Amino acid sequence: MTESNEWLFVSWIGYHGRSDDLAAQLPAREEYVTGGEGNRLVRYVRQWVETRRLVKQTRPSAIFVMQPPVLALWSVLSAAPNETFIVGDLHTGVFTDRKWSWAARGLLRSLRRRQGAVIVTNESLADRCRTIGTTTFVLDDAVPRRVGTAPASPESTNLSDLTVDEYVLVPLAYASDEPLDEILAAAAEDSTRAWVLTGRAPEAVRRAASPNVRFSGFVSNDDYNWLAANAGVVLACTDEEDTMQRAGYEAVSWERPLVTSRMRVLKDYFGDAAEFADPTSASILLAIQRAVSDREGLISRIAALGERKREEHALGLAKVRDFTAGRER
Questions:
Q1: Mind listing the pLDDT tens digit for each residue in 170-186?
Q2: Are the CB atoms for 90 and 67 separated by under 8 Å?
Q3: DSSP alpha helices (H): ranges in the chain?
Q4: Backbone φ/ψ region at 165: left (φ over 0), alpha (ψ -120 to 50), beta
Q5: Are 169 and 231 in contact, with CB atoms under 8 Å apart?
Q6: Domains of the chain by range and CATH?
Q7: d(CA 265, CA 242)
Q8: What is the dihedral of CA 265, 313, 140, 72, to 10 degrees?
Q9: pLDDT tens digits, residue range 103-136?
Q10: Would the pTM count as exceeding 0.90?
């Protein structure tokens, strides 16, 4: 087995759960390159320089790079010797975010020329990569069973009055694919139940929210775990196809009732273990109500799904690990 310091996992972000899980499981040395303070351009320049320095100093035999931003992968390609095996962990934004999608084909061709590889989260994205001729692996996020591991109570006083199993948890990045107006409208119609929206909400979203909406802001890992473990329903919404939902994976780990979008990849993954909704307030609210009514049934089915997905993930990870070990030169 390759020692962890011989492989490197680079992410241009302060922390990401998928990167953390993959780095631990491969195993690989995990490096988060943030670029410090300043505007985005300044940070990108610093991240580019820091990443090149890191690659040249550590000289790993294999490098995994979280994507996007595509600049992270290009900086690794520019610094790594030809014998270094490079793998891009391509999140959906590489293909759907206009900021990066223009570069997707060039990125895939660059990896093909370097005899590198990519990891994606579903077969639909894999098909796009394979048409370019790039070696491609499909690997969902890990869904370790976490039931019973959360703190007994939250640290934040902003969360202390929430009733266990009675609130809707809505993990958000306030990204372009999240139907925020429809989520807020559904919450307003469900006025007797608390809806907890995570992340740093824009002021316009806060102003538009009904009184039953709670904005948690960025919370500690312990408080987020408490929120996920005790939610009555987890809502993971997108209006884009081919976009997996980290919040959906978390619902599987914590065995919580899940409502997610009626998109192809989400239906394929969750099957009968979730309720599905269109990105409209009426559809979201009806799905929440169905999830509440079928709470025990959903918990049972999502627990069974977790068992299956853990087996599938272990097999997929072994393929990536074995292929990478075989390509070390």
A1: 999 998 899 999 999 99
A2: yes
A3: 17-25, 40-58, 70-79, 93-96, 104-113, 123-130, 180-189, 203-208, 221-230, 246-254, 264-270, 281-293, 295-327
A4: left
A5: yes
A6: 4-139 (3.40.50.2000), 168-308 (3.40.50.2000)
A7: 6
A8: -150
A9: 999 999 999 999 999 999 999 999 999 999 999 9
A10: no
